Structure to design on (353 residues):
């Protein structure tokens, strides 16, 4: 199971390591979708899988809550989901509410224990198994018909879990395209047929750092995913055209593209000669995880962002340091966040309370 917050990138790293030793012309890839996982997990068994996971991790409490309390609260939430449809109220008796963080956690725990035998079988046969919630990726040097038979057998493990498989030399996993090219691993960015090149418009009323982060993050993804220099060039140009379509100035695009290389200590433009070496340096660099927030010593300040408020964060922190520097309150860390300015769309759309 993938614990990373960047699952396709984590898969790229694992595939790189696996393919150097195990990949051949007959290697097959398989993606499996768990059908309707969130609404198929049985409620009581799902809560029990959460308890089993906490016991396996030897946790007595989480965030100040005892495990017994967590399980009782989880059971309360899972068995008391109600919704209305066409004027009638219904009680959900199977699965959890879509979009609920608890449903996600319980589904993940349930799948973890379901897949143990499968994981061991694949790894003992020299294959690679990777899962992100309800999406599974397998690569192994088995004949396709043998893998299909095994998937049929796995489908008998649990009546609540139905596995729908796609097998071939080319597959797509989330936003990653994976291909076996005559025994060589080829990866690039995958875009669904419904993809449209629309990002946060540069002329929208949002802080500049949010807009700058888009070309930076998108190019970083391209380098991580694209296994050849040519596929990287293709993806970079598609990205540039999409950003220009969304009114991003060429200067901002080039600046952020350069910043990706600077961030990883690469001091020369990417070329066909240095691409593999530079890409590997980026892949091997540790991902900086988000720092956890100490809510006991933090204060959140939200303000409506507009063009006249660009310098507000700098001024706010300067005033905070000036007036609270010697005060005990200075131990509290102010965290600024922005709200979107009111607009026509927000006025026209009615949200149910």
């Amino acid at each position: 199971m993938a614990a990373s917050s960047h699952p396709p990138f984590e898969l790229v790293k694992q595939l790189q390591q696996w393919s150097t030793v195990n990949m051949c012309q007959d290697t097959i890839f398989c993606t499996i979708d768990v059908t309707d996982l969130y609404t198929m997990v049985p409620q009581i068994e799902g809560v029990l899988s959460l308890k089993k996971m906490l016991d396996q991790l030897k946790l007595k409490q989480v965030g100040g809550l005892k495990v017994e309390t967590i399980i009782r609260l989880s059971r309360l939430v899972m068995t008391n989901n109600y919704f209305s449809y066409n004027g009638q109220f219904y009680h959900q008796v199977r699965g959890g509410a879509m979009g609920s963080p608890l449903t996600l956690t319980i589904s993940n725990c349930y799948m973890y224990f379901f897949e143990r035998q499968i994981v061991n079988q694949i790894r003992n046969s020299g294959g690679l198994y990777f899962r992100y919630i309800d999406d599974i990726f397998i690569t192994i040097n088995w004949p396709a018909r043998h893998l299909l038979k095994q998937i049929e057998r796995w489908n008998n493990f649990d009546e609540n879990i139905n596995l729908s498989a796609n097998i071939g030399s080319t597959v797509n996993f989330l936003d990653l395209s994976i291909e076996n090219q005559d025994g060589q691993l080829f990866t690039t960015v995958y875009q669904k047929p419904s993809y449209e090149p629309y990002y946060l418009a540069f002329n929208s009323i949002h802080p500049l750092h949010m807009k700058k982060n888009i070309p930076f993050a998108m190019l970083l993804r391209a380098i991580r995913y694209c296994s050849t220099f040519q596929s990287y060039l293709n993806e970079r140009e598609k990205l540039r055209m999409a950003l220009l379509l969304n009114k991003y100035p060429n200067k901002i695009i080039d600046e952020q593209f350069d910043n990706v290389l600077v961030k990883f200590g690469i001091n020369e433009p990417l070329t066909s000669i240095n691409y593999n070496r530079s890409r590997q340096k980026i892949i091997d660099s540790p991902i900086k995880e988000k720092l956890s927030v100490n809510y006991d010593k933090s204060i959140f300040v939200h303000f409506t962002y507009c063009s006249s408020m660009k310098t507000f964060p700098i001024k706010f922190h300067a005033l905070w340091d000036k007036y609270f520097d010697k005060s005990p309150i200075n131990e509290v860390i102010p965290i600024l966040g922005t709200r979107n300015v009111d607009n026509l769309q927000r006025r026209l759309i009615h949200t149910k309370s």
